[in-house]
Amino acid sequence: xxxxTPLTNEQQEMVAANxxxxxxxxxxxxxVNETIYGFGYDDLYQEGCIWLxxxxxxxxxxxxxxxxxxxxxxxxxxxxxxxxxxxxxxxFTRLGVGEHGELTAxxxxxxxxxxxxxxxSMLEVMQLLESRARDYNGVTRLGIKALELKIKGMSITEIxxxxxxxxxxxxxxxxxxxxxxxxxxxxxxxxx
Length: 192
What we know:
Strand content: under 5%
Low-confidence stretches: none
Number of helices: 9
C-alpha cells in the first residue's frame, strides 16, 4: 500500500493523538525479540506507525471510532510484516565460529576456500572483465558491469535496484554480455 500524497492536517493529528495504539498493539499481540533482525521493539514500532498512517488515510468515522479501527489495521499490518520477515529469515544461514576458530554454518564446519590462488584468480577475472568492458558500450557494457557486481556477491535484484531497473533487465544484460564475451578473442585469451 504505497502513498504518494502527504497526510492531511486532520490525519496527522489523528496519528499523533493515537501513537499509543501502536505501542499497545505490539505489547498485546507480538513477541518482541531484540536478537532477531526486524523483531526488535523499535523495528515493530516504526512499522506499526506506518500502518497507523494507513489507518488514518482509510478511516471512515461512520463505521467505528478511530482507535478501534487503527488497532486492527496496525495489528494486521504488523502480522503481515512479521510473516514477511520470517519468510526472509528462512533464506539466511547462521554463521558462527567453532571452538578452534573455524567458520561454522548452522553448527557444521564449513570448507573454507580462502586460499591465495582463489583470491588471485578472482582478482584476475575482475581485472579481465574491467578491461573488456572498456571496449564495449550499451547493453553489453552494462552486462559486464553487472557480472562484476555478481562476482563481488550482489544478487541480480540488488544490482537492479542499483540501476533502478527491473531484475529482468539485468538478466538480459548479463546474457548479452556472455554472448559477446564467448566470441571475444581478447577475453578468451585472458582466461586460458
